[in-house]
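User: Quick sanity check before I run a bigger batch. Here is a single chain. Can you write out its predicted 3D structure?
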Amino acid sequence: MEFFNKDSQSTANSSPLAARMRPRTLDEFVGQDHMIAPGRLLRRAIEADQLSSLIFAGPPGTGKTTLARIIANSTRAHFIAINAVLAGVKEIRSAIETAQERANKHKQHTILFIDEVHRFNKSQQDALLPWVENGTVILIGATTENPFFEVNKALLSRSRIFQLKPLGERDLYRIAEQALSAPERGYGKLKVKVESDALAHLVNFANGDARSLLNALELAVETTPPDAQGVIYVTLAVAEESIQQRAVLYDKEGDAHFDTISAFIKSVRGSDSDAALYWLARMLYAGEDPRFILRRLSILASEDVGLADPNAVVVVNACAQAFERVGMPEGRYHLAQATLYLATAPKSNSLMGFFDALATVEKEREADVPSHLKDSNRDKQGFGHGTGYLYPYAYREHWVAQQYLPAFLQGQVFYQPSAQGFEAQIQAAVMRRREAQLAAMEMDAGIAPVEILTFSPSDRQSQRWLQRTLGQVGEQLASIRSRVFELAQPQRHHIILDMNASSGLLTWEALRHVPEGGVYAAVCNEQQAKALQEQAEKLPQLMRPVIVAAPLVELRNKLATIAPNVSFDSIVGRNALANELDKARSVQQLLQLLQPSGVLVLAETVTRHTQRLYRLLGVDRLNAELYERLAAAEEEIYANSTDPMVNWDVEDLRSLLIAAGVKVKITVAHYPTQLYVSSDLLNRWFSTNVSATKRPAYVDYLSRHLSASEIRVVRAEFERLFLNQTIDWSTTVAFVQWSKS
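Assistant: Done. Predicted structure follows.
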C-alpha cells in the first residue's frame, strides 16, 4: 500500500525523467481539457474538495495516475493508493480499517485510489462495494480498459467516468519543452539541443503517450555525449535509435480489439474498400490473430453478401486455406484479397493497396477509431460508441455516403481498381461511391460524430425534478428548445452559457445535457437571478447553474470576475437579442466568450411577423373606416425603428451581421399553435402597461388612432367572438447559428 506524499516537491534526481516531470498541480497538467479545463465539473470538484467516486479510463501515458496524485496534493481528505496488480482483499481491508479509524477519530474522509482497477477480479471488486456505498471511502479507479466491460456494474453505477484521450501533438511538444527547460526536474541545467526533425520523430512515434515520449527523450539525452563546448546534440539518427517503433495500444481481449474489428466489419459491409484495408492494416500491425480475421470474413461472406455473389464464401475459404499453407508475412496477400472481394462484391492484382494502408499505419500517427464505428454492444449509453452509424441497408442500393476512415485520413485512397477483367465492372461503382463520400464531406454530411468523453450515473431525484420542470412548458416552447439543442449538439463535458435565462427554458435542459460540464445562466437583474436561484436550490450544489446577473454589455467583465479563464463550448439563448438595439455588436460580444471550436445558437422571435389581432376580426366585423384605423394603429407597433424588439426582420439581421464581419447561418421556422383567449389575456391587451419595462401596451397604440368609445367597441367585439375560445396563432422564430466550421 502506498500513501502519496502531499508535501513532496520533486522526485529524487535518480528517478526516471517521466517520474520527475510528473505534474504536481492542475495548472501544470497538460491535455485532457474536456475534463479539467477551467469551469469543467471535475476541476470544480477538485478545487472545492467535493469529490465523488471517479473512474479514469484511457490509454497509458495520458495522465490517469497523475490526476490522482494532484487530487492527493489538493484534498483535505486522507489519501490511500494501492495497485490492483500487487494488492488483494487483504490490502483493501487494511485501507478500509484506516478509513474507518480516520472517520471516527478525526472526522476525516478517505479517498482510495486503485491503479489498474480492472485487474481486480469480481470478488475483489465486490469487497469494495459496501464501503463505497456507505461513504467510508471515496473510490478513484484508473484503468486502461473499457470500464463498462471490466469494472463491476455496481461500482460503475456509483461513479462518474472520465475518458482520457491520447495526447495531441501540441500537448506532446509542450511536455518535451517543459522537460528540456525545467532546471531541477528536467534538463534545464544542461546544454541540450534537439533538432526539430528529431523532436518531431519522438512526438510522432510516442503516439499520444507522454511517458513514451519522455522515456525516449531521456534515453536520447543520457546516451549522447556532449561536444567540446558541453552541448548535447540530439539528431534525427539519435531520436530514431531512442524510439524505433510506434507505441500501439491493442489488447486482443480488450476494447481496442472489439472496436477495431467492429470498424472493420462495418467498413466491409458498407462497401468501403479503403476503410476496410485501413482497419485490416491496423489489426495486423497491432498483432491481431489473422485466423480470427479470416473467421470473421467467412461469417460476413454468408451474412452480408450471400447469394448476391455465391462465390464470396468460396473465395474467402480458398484464401483461408492458402493462408494456412503460406503463413505470415506472405499470407497478408490472401487476407487482403478476401477483404477486397467482400468489400467490392455486389451486394485482381490490386492487393498492393493493402501495403499502401500498412505504410500509412507505419508512418502516420495512429488515430482513434471514429466513435460511430466503435462497438456499441457494451457502452453505447456511456460513451456513445456506435451512435451516428448509418446502417447501409436502410438506404437505396444498400449504401450511404458515410465516412469510415479516421478524420485525418478522410479522402485518402488505398484501393485503386483496375480496368481489367471482373474488376473493370466494379471500378465505376467504387469511383461513384468515393465521389459521393467527398461530396458529403463538403456538405458536412456523413462526418464521424464527436465521441462522448465522460459518463456518470444519473441522479434519479435530480432527473425527476428536471423532467417535471422541462415538461411544464407548452408544445411550441418545447419545440423551440429541442431545436436549439439539436443545433448546438452539446457534449456531456461541455460548458454552456444560457443567455436571457430568466424563464429557465433552456437552463434546465442544458443541465440535463452536460452532467460533467457546467451551465452558466445569464439574467438581466438581481430579481431574475434570485428567482432562478430559488428553483436551482432543489438540485445538488455541484449540479446547479452559475447564475450571472448582468446586461449583455457588462457580461464579459462580470464573468471575468466570478469565473476567470472560463470560455464556453456553447452559447444558447431565447430572445437574447430582443432588447439589444445593436444586435450585430451583441453577437460579436457573445462570440468573444466562445472557445475557438464553440457553437452559438440563438432562437429569436421575429416580432415583426407576429399574428395581427385586427386580422382575427376581419374587415366585416367593424365599419370599414374604423377597421382601417385599427389596422394602422396595430401596424404602428411594428414600425417603431427605436424598439429593438420589432425594428428588424430576418434579412435585416443577416445584413447587419454580414456588414459587421460575422458569418452566421439563419434558419426560419414557423410555429402554428392554439391560443386560449381568457379574460386575463383580454385585460393584458386592453390595459395600459404598468410594468417596470414601461413598454407601451397594445391599447396604448390603439389610443393614438381610436377614441375611448371606439376602443370599447373593439374590445366588446373581441369578447363576443373569442372570449373563452381557442384561436389559431402563429409565431416566427429565427435560429441564429455560428460555429467555426
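The domain at 169-242 is CATH 1.10.8.60 (Helicase, Ruva Protein; domain 3).

User: Great, the batch can go ahead then.
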